[in-house]
């Protein structure tokens, strides 16, 4: 270790001395490098062998020849070439670094490690001999393997080499690769982009950029891969990443074709066979899986990356148990292989095996302080220690202490109802407690769920035995029904465990959205004008390809539509064939049967399913407000694709947040504000029932404060489209009209209709609570308070209304928890709240009444009603007398 640190110091010294870029290779060698980068490996090998015989630029050609042989899987030949080269020129650092890679591919990890130590010793003993930028890059990479500080290497070694020779591709690849290894994707993208400015046609740099974009932006990833393959159609890394992309989309046939292309270039690439093993596993072909894994380990039988990669992809398919087993096998081959330790920690945490999972996460962080994912997880562990834990035997719920005190009881009750309902329906009993973690900070949720911050649209995720969710505090300004989210997620618990996590994403999501609607007709996803347009416009995804619709949707709207279509498929299957057939499909999936085979076995051939489902979906679309004219006039149809893509991306609740102004309708439907009233009136006259024109006219009349005139188009919309919801609906706008005209009863009636249909209409709930209290309609007040709390349980007003309504209705069992929650939210009148709670507790015989009346008097010492209540309590149950010592010392 001291030797490596000394070597790093020498490297920093060299970086300071570095003034002149490396000499340019001979023209012939440049031609060979171009053939290599273009993927013409056979020609490259021939050119290199001839050049070496002629003893032309031997180092460069030996690097090119060994690299080309390595690229096509001729690993023993590549080892011979590089070994001979080192025997001739042992001082060449680039040859040594190339030898390390080739020795590893030949199953010689000890010899490869010795190469690293030789590089460090050589630089340490003779730093002046290695002042060129390529040698400095090699030294930096070797120093990293010697546990040098990665950020120091990146900033002091690689950046210095880049400044000295900006066109040196090795430095850009090394710097970007380092950032990728540490999950610092933003820095990785910057480094590869810097390289592409100098070398715009380099396929390896484009591939690196694709890897940097892969976790966050599939479109940019695909663009980079296309650029790489345009330059080199045989680029193995790009073909493998594309194959991985298709595996994620459950397009296994296309993935297999891409792997065949890789095999044609390099029949022994370990990643090729690792992905083949993944495909075989996912298609329930154990013999093929075993053969593929053996092929992956042919030249290096203890290569830890093979099992790590297999396990990583299985875990991404929610096969966490199998994935964890693969990581343990990788660690048997190399106990210090950090990628396997990091992934194993994630697998165990998602399996609910938290003690070992957190221990491994902290171990990875201690060994690699730069790794962003490891740092985030270690930091999260400290935060999670501060969460409160609630349990009822079936669930372990973790929430912030504050939120647990406010609505933790409601969470447990809701989860208990979901468990009772869904387990009975699907004939499956969850055997172990389900862990539910609710995060008030979205970044913490993202780290726990994905390993990295980001993904702001997700509301909840289920891993099978563990659910993670954002609390209402993490979604400020967005109405999200947390009860629907948790019901949806617990449905995943049932179906994932029932199928042993062997179900396609579309079916998993489709059942959960479907079951939301079965539990509460206002939950889930429903046909909307835009969905109607998409269905009738032939934007349905074939059932057999639905999982791909979740992977790279053209817009956020299309992702939301994928959830809706998936739930519609489930509804179709249940209506057409029955719930028992759906459960039979799930049981078959658990046995490893492929989804299309399982569907055909229990329903009908897929061709028939596809045809009948399309007809089912189109009929549903056509039944949406059939009395309305849905033609979109040209002057109302100017909407860009970017406007269509507005909304929140959500694994569990993809509904778009609603607003309460006419501009939202224009944004959603592409209406222009510059269209003249005369043009609009003329068009409406010839299309008196047109949805878009009626809505636009109603909105404009409201803006012009012509409230009486606005009634007619809005009432017509309510009559013809009674199922419409959202802040831009006719109901919401008509309520504004009635309120402006002082028509309170009509306003209340319209808002009641909206509240009965919309599970996130907090503005409507709030107004209905006010109107109900004024009319002393306490059941309505209580109902709307409960509706509000299902969306946001962290505000005062619904608890205040609920407590008041429950008291008036003589329901202390509801009023008491409402007052307790109110106290946790710092009410403006704590003395009154404590007093009312004390009254209720006293009537129910709860001794806590004394404590609350005393707290009331602490806030307002002259509160006569509270003083009287204290006297009454003391008469019934005198307070305990102080003992002699307490009287003497004055201490309790």
Strand order of the largest sheet: 1-2-3-5-4
Helix content: 55-70%
The first-to-last residue Cα distance is: 61 Å
Put simply, the count of helices is 46
Query: C-alpha Rg, in Å?
Result: 33 Å
Structural class: mainly alpha
What percentage of amino acids are in beta strands? under 5%
Q: Categorize the overall geometry.
A: globular
Stretches with pLDDT under 50, minimum 5 residues: 1-6, 16-27, 638-662, 668-673, 884-892
Q: What's the total number of strands?
A: 5
Q: What integer is the average pLDDT?
A: 89
Tell me the major beta sheet.
5 strands, mixed
Structure characterization notes:
It is a single chain. The protein has 892 residues and is mostly helical. Among the domains are: 396-446 and 482-623, no CATH class; 829-892, no CATH class. The chain has a 5-stranded mixed beta sheet with strand order 1-2-3-5-4. A hairpin with a 3-residue loop joins strand 1 and strand 2. Helix 1 crosses helix 7, helix 8 (133-145) packs antiparallel against helix 9 (150-164) and helix 14 runs antiparallel to helix 15. The longest helix has 26 residues, at 401-426. The two termini are 61 Å apart.
Brief account:
With about 900 residues, the chain is mostly helical. The chain has 46 helices and five strands. Helix 23 (about 400-425) links the parallel strand 2 and strand 3 (about 435-440).
List the helices and strands and how they pair.
Blueprint: H1 2-17, H2 27-37, H3 41-53, H4 58-71, H5 75-88, H6 93-105, H7 109-125, H8 133-145, H9 150-164, H10 169-181, H11 185-198, H12 203-213, H13 218-231, H14 236-248, H15 252-265, H16 270-282, H17 286-296, H18 304-316, H19 320-333, H20 338-350, H21 354-367, H22 372-384, E1 388-391, E2 395-399, H23 401-426, E3 434-439, H24 442-450, E4 460-462, E5 466-470, H25 482-498, H26 505-519, H27 529-536, H28 556-577, H29 579-590, H30 595-602, H31 606-622, H32 641-644, H33 662-669, H34 677-686, H35 691-703, H36 707-720, H37 730-740, H38 744-755, H39 762-774, H40 778-789, H41 796-808, H42 812-824, H43 830-843, H44 848-859, H45 864-876, H46 884-889
Parallel strand pairs: 2-3, 3-5
Antiparallel strand pairs: 1-2, 4-5
């Amino acid at each position: 270790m001291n030797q490596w640190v000394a070597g790093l110091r020498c490297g920093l010294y060299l970086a300071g001395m570095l003034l002149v870029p490396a000499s340019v290779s001979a023209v012939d060698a440049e031609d060979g490098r171009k053939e290599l980068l273009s993927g013409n490996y056979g020609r490259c090998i021939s050119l290199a062998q001839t050049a070496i015989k002629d003893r032309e630029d031997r180092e460069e050609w030996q690097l090119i020849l060994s690299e080309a042989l390595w690229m096509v899987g001729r690993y023993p030949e590549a080892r011979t070439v590089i070994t001979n080269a080192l025997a001739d020129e042992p001082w060449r650092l680039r040859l040594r670094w190339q030898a390390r890679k080739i020795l590893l591919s030949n199953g010689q990890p000890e010899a490869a490690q010795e190469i690293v130590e030789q590089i460090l010793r050589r630089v340490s003993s003779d730093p002046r001999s290695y002042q060129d930028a390529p040698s400095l890059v090699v030294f930096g990479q070797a120093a990293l393997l010697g546990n040098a500080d990665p950020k120091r290497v990146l900033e002091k070694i690689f950046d210095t080499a880049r400044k000295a020779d900006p066109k040196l591709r090795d430095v850009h690849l090394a710097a970007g690769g380092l950032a990728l290894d540490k999950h610092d994707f933003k820095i990785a993208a910057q480094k590869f982009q810097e390289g592409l400015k100098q070398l715009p046609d380099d396929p390896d740099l484009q591939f690196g950029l694709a890897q940097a974009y892969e976790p966050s932006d599939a479109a940019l990833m695909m663009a980079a891969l296309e650029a790489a393959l345009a330059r080199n159609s045989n680029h193995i890394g790009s073909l493998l990443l594309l194959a991985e992309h298709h595996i994620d989309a459950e397009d296994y046939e296309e993935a297999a074709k891409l792997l065949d292309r890789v095999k044609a270039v390099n029949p022994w690439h370990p990643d090729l066979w690792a992905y083949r093993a993944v495909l075989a596993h996912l298609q329930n072909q154990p013999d093929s899986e075993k053969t593929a894994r053996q092929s992956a380990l042919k030249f290096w039988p203890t290569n830890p990356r093979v099992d790590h990669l297999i396990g990583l992809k299985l875990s991404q398919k929610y096969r966490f148990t199998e994935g964890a087993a693969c990581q343990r096998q990788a660690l048997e081959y190399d106990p210090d292989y950090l990628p396997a330790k990091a992934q194993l920690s994630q697998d165990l945490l998602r399996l609910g095996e938290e003690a070992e999972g957190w221990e491994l996460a902290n171990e990875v962080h201690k060994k690699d302080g730069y790794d962003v994912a490891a740092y985030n997880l270690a930091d999260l562990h400290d935060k999670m220690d501060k969460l409160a834990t609630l349990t009822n035997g079936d669930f372990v719920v973790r929430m912030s202490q504050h939120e647990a005190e406010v609505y933790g009881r409601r969470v447990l009750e809701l989860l208990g109802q979901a468990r009772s309902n869904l387990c009975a329906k699907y004939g499956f009993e969850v055997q172990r407690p389900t862990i539910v973690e609710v995060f008030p900070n979205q970044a913490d949720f993202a780290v726990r769920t994905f390993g990295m911050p980001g993904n702001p649209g997700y509301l909840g995720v289920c891993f099978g035995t563990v659910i993670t969710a954002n609390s209402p505090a993490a979604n400020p300004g967005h109405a999200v029904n947390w009860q629907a989210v948790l019901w949806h997620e617990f449905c995943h618990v049932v179906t994932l465990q029932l199928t042993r996590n062997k179900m396609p994403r579309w079916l998993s999501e489709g059942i959960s959205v479907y079951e939301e609607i079965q539990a509460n007709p206002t939950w889930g996803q429903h046909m909307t004008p835009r969905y109607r347009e998409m269905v009738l416009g032939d934007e349905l995804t074939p059932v057999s390809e639905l999982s791909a619709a979740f992977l790279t949707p053209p817009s956020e709207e299309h992702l939301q539509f994928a959830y809706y279509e998936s739930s519609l498929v489930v509804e179709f299957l249940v209506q057409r064939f029955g719930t028992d057939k759906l459960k039979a499909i799930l049981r078959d999936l658990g046995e490893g049967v492929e989804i299309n085979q399982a569907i055909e076995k229990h329903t009908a051939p897929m061709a028939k399913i596809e045809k009948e489902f399309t007809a089912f979906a189109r009929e549903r679309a056509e039944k949406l407000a059939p009395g309305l004219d849905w033609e979109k006039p040209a002057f109302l149809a100017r909407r860009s694709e970017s406007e269509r893509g507005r909304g929140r991306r959500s694994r569990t609740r993809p509904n778009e947040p609603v607003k309460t102004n006419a501009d939202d309708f224009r944004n959603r439907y592409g209406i222009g504000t510059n269209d003249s009233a005369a043009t609009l009136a003329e068009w409406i006259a010839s299309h008196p029932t047109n949805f878009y024109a009626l809505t636009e006219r109603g909105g404009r009349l409201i803006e012009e404060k012509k409230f009486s005139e606005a009634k007619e188009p809005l009432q017509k919309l309510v009559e013809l489209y009674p199922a419409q919801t959202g802040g831009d609906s006719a109901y919401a706008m008509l309520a504004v009209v009635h309120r402006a005209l002082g028509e309170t009863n009509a306003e209340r009636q319209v808002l009641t209709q909206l509240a009965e249909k919309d599970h996130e209409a907090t503005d409507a709930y709030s107004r209905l609570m006010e109107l109900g209290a004024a009319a002393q309609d306490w059941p309505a007040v209580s109902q709307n308070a409960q509706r509000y709390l299902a969306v946001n349980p962290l505000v005062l007003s619904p608890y205040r209304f609920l407590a008041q309504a429950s008291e008036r209705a003589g329901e202390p069992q509801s009023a008491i928890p409402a007052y307790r929650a109110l106290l946790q939210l710092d009410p403006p009148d704590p003395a009154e709240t404590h007093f009312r709670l004390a009254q209720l507790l006293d009537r129910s015989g709860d001794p806590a009444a004394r404590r609350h009346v005393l707290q009331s008097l602490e806030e307002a010492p002259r509160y006569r009603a509270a003083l009287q209540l204290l006297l009454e309590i003391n008469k019934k149950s005198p307070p305990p007398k102080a003992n002699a010592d307490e009287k003497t010392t004055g201490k309790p």
